[in-house]
């Protein structure tokens, strides 16, 4: 009897061993099992991903990443998420160096308009198979037509962020509405309104140093019959929606008017001496509470208000579209893109993490806002983030209109306006176009160097009449005409496809 039982036990154990080997999939299978919501049910060693991220790491971000976030990642994904922070003013140079040397980066952010450059440099790998295998929950809230905005020649290389209203993107001015009211003004619709606002505010409030940003795109919209639709590196090339022609922006009449207006602002003392054009610096200036405006986009005021109020408790921010009567164009799926480089050690893990982020509003709010009751609270369907003032992950980098919540102070009329913002917008005929610099690399490098001259000119920091002709000549010598011609060829092929 005992012998019989022993034999039976050995038989059962053998069956269990065989079943276990079958589930493991053999030595050739390393992918962990995942649940329906992207979670990792494997009890093995956690997989790791590394995110390259712009900005400074706040104290709360440190404790969040090492505490609640780390615990949640292990629980939901059996994953360790490392975040490498790089200051804004160093981000692009350091990103290029790190990716060029194939450092272990799994996810990074950059501008959507430069996606073609990343692809040519092998800094962005195809994502179609990864999305198919690991991104199905993401597709439920980021429709494929949106994700196709990160495709080149039918292959997806990046996930466009900011799935939200996008017409007239980056063509607005985000300003201190409380100060506008205080100086006896109600709204802004022209560049002269901005000038008047700055003049009055600096006279009435000694602590105000002037404008925080020598705005470019909003003024371009105002001074042109066309939207500010840049389609290549920097601001070298713009697209005319009506004629379907690519043109050199710095040689355009609109640019010249922008530069002359900003020069007037500088000479009038309305642009402070310490003002630069660096993205991180312009935002931090406004957040200090001592500056009047920054170039904005839809939702900009809700993104920076907590930081502004930390220094100016009574501050109210509001976005304005100059020349609101002009048509609004939807020119791209978003302004930003999330990419996985070819050198990524764990591309599947990177996609799993993105999928987790978008798989539920709970995950979205947790990653971007932190712990409910500690970092934020929800009041009548609105979010109050003033429990802390430290930044966590930027919402604009991952925005999804299905999940985002408006601050408690947001006017209901504004919320409704955002929902209908695109209703009367015109879809650009080259929506989804991403240029390739494959034939333009050397020319583009030269043009980018020349562009530095135009940054000072368009910001009003140097004399226009003296410096502009010199810069245009340098632009011609660097090959701008050949550059525009190749971009026109690419646009024509896109339109003909």
What does this structure look like?
The protein has helices at 2-24, 59-66, 68-77, 88-100, 115-120, 128-134, 136-141, 144-147, 177-182, 191-204, 217-222, 253-267, 279-287, 300-311, 347-358, 361-369, 395-398, 412-419, 441-458, 464-478, 480-496, and strands at residues 47-54, 79-86, 107-111, 151-152, 155-156, 159-160, 172-176, 237-239, 246-248, 293-296, 317-321, 329-330, 336-339, 377-379, 382-384, 426-427. It has 21 helices and 16 strands. It has three domains: 47-162 and 334-384, D-Maltodextrin-Binding Protein, domain 2 (3-Layer(aba) Sandwich); 172-332 and 398-427, D-Maltodextrin-Binding Protein, domain 2, CATH 3.40.190; 441-496, no CATH class. The strands form six sheets. It has a five-stranded mixed sheet with strand order 2-1-3-13-6. The protein has a three-stranded antiparallel sheet with strand order 10-7-11. A two-stranded antiparallel ribbon has the order 4-5. The chain is an alpha+beta fold. Strand 14 (377-379) and strand 15 form a beta hairpin.
- Overall tally of structural domains: 3
Instruction: Provide the CATH architecture of the largest domain.
Output: 3-Layer(aba) Sandwich
Kindly state the percentage of residues in helix. Answer: 40-55%
CATH superfamily of the largest domain: Periplasmic binding protein-like II
> Taking all residues together, what is the mean pLDDT?
87
- Low-confidence stretches are 1-42
β-strand number: 16
Please name the CATH topology of the largest domain: D-Maltodextrin-Binding Protein, domain 2
Apparent shape: globular
Identify the strand order in the major beta sheet.
2-1-3-13-6
Q: CATH first level of the largest domain: which class?
A: Alpha Beta
How many separate helices? 21
Distance between the termini: 79 Å
Structural class: alpha+beta
Give the DSSP E fraction (strand runs of 2 or more residues).
Answer: 5-15%
Biggest sheet statistics:
5 strands, mixed
Rg over CA atoms, rounded to whole Å, is 25 Å
